[in-house]
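Project standup — Tuesday

K.O.: blocked on the structure for the chain from last sprint. Re-posting the sequence here as requested.
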Amino acid sequence: MASIIKVDTIQDQDGNNIINENANTITIGASGDTISIPSGATLANSGTATGFGISWQSDIKTSAFTAVAGEGYWINTTSAAITMTLPASASVGDQIIFTDYARTWGTNALTINRNGLNYQGGTDNPVYDTDGQSVNIVYSGATQGWIPNSDDDVVNEGALPTYSADFLVIGGGGGSCFGGGGAGGYRNSYNSETSGGGGSSESSLTLKQSIVYTITVGAGGASAASGSEQGSNGGDSSISGSNITTITSAGGGGSGGNITSPVNVTPGLDGGSGGGGGAFVGGSNFPGGSGTANQGFGGGIGRNIDSPAAGAGGGGGASAVGGDGTSSPVAETGGVGGNGLASSITGSSVTRAGGGGGGSGGPQTASSAGGSGGGGQGAGTNNTANQNGTANTGGGGGGAGGTFNIARVGGSGVVILRLPTASYSGTTTGSPTVSTDGSDTILTFTGSGTYTG
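H.V.: unblocked you, prediction finished:
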């Protein structure tokens, strides 16, 4: 029969109490000691002990920091959102606890930077945005990585729900001088419709709930300040987010210019679609700029032969090369702008990204048409003045010529997202136009903003 020995106090050889009945405490070892248990033994906690094996940090975290295994953190996001970076390496069983100190994660979220290790089997950085959350994570190994033992009321951790969204992204159109401005680059994924420059339809985006996607809409390119300069390229348009490859459509190329000396005639600039080449009587031909692969076509040639006048090249469009200028003793015209492409992503067919028409000058010159989809008309001596590219189509500016010697600006770009209404979060900035078509919601951004998945 086993014996039971009852004692009030037991001390170690240094006189330290390791059992003290009156204090209701058990102390094992002293500061700096190593406590070992035999192989195969299990250290169990069937009571109410808290923080076992975790060293809680006394400093309240109010800015970005790197966590250390075995530590617990109170994180205060009252003033701003915070990113906590996990250790770059970890061992199985490593544990970290972090808690919403002031119940403000719902306003300013906590983002976890995985630092190269998986989080619940995923490769996304989880975001915690529920007030009062407390999260306990343990490292399980390379496959699943960090796994939460508890994460109260978590909606958006590592394995966030996903859904598909289609896009149309068009850069700002190029500004003009004598030639026509090139259209903004044209990239599309909707309904197998083609992209610019003869490119195929692209793959849809995979968006994730709670991820913020940044939308940038490119401005139209500025017109040339004088005939000796080229028009400016339009601004790039894009969609970016932490879990997608950024979709960027280049701004259209600015057009070439001319002055009183053929030495200073300039070619069109490269861009989403290329700008039309400049022109001068008695000089050499000048090429248009090149378009970007799978976004747009090149600009037309500016004709510069020995005759009373010459026509500049038209700007390239999403579906066609800009026309070449013509030159003859009696009839000189600028090249027409390259046509744009039509898309039904908004529910009805709309054509965008046309190149600007080239300008011309001489005794019997006619205006040259801008490309369908917002390309500005190029000027002739005694006809209608040249025009700006149409806003939010990415159309190129029309070239100057004859008595209409004012260069024109390109049209601004546009970014359109089409996604299932059932998945639409309703959270945006930048005031996009919101419409529906069947079971889908369409966001049309005519200026920069964001969409939260």
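K.O.: great, moving the ticket to review. The chain has two domains: 51-159, 161-453. The two ends are 69 Å apart (CA to CA).
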